Amino acid sequence: MYDPVRYLEKLNPSSIVVEVFRTNVCSKQVAQRIIADLAQLIPNAKINFDLDDCDKILRIECHHLVVENVVEILNKRSFLCEVLE
Predict the structure, then answer these.
(1) Which long-range contacts (CB under 8 A, 24 or more apart) does 69-77 make?
(2) pTM of the model
(3) Cα torsion for 16, 67, 78, 46, to the nearest 10°?
(4) 64 with 8: CB under 8 angstroms?
(5) Average pLDDT score over residue span 44-60
(6) C-alpha angle 56/59/61, rounded to 5°?
């Protein structure tokens, strides 16, 4: 069965995607729950929040990332989430 993630990793296994999102998450406890949810969606990713930043930054570093899935997870919890450009 064709697996696009594994295909991309085979093409360049050392390529890392880093995506930064603006959120309105303010609580450390909520951020930890969101990180746990995202870790299930994106295994082996490095995920963290910078809640001290004015944009309440969510940073994800991994081999493959579907931005829409991240936005959807936060939106379902009634949080703002948009790619920071």
Answers:
(1) 69/41, 70/19, 70/21, 70/38, 70/41, 71/21, 73/34, 73/37, 73/38, 73/41, 74/21, 74/23, 74/25, 74/34, 77/30, 77/34
(2) 0.81
(3) -10
(4) yes
(5) 96
(6) 175
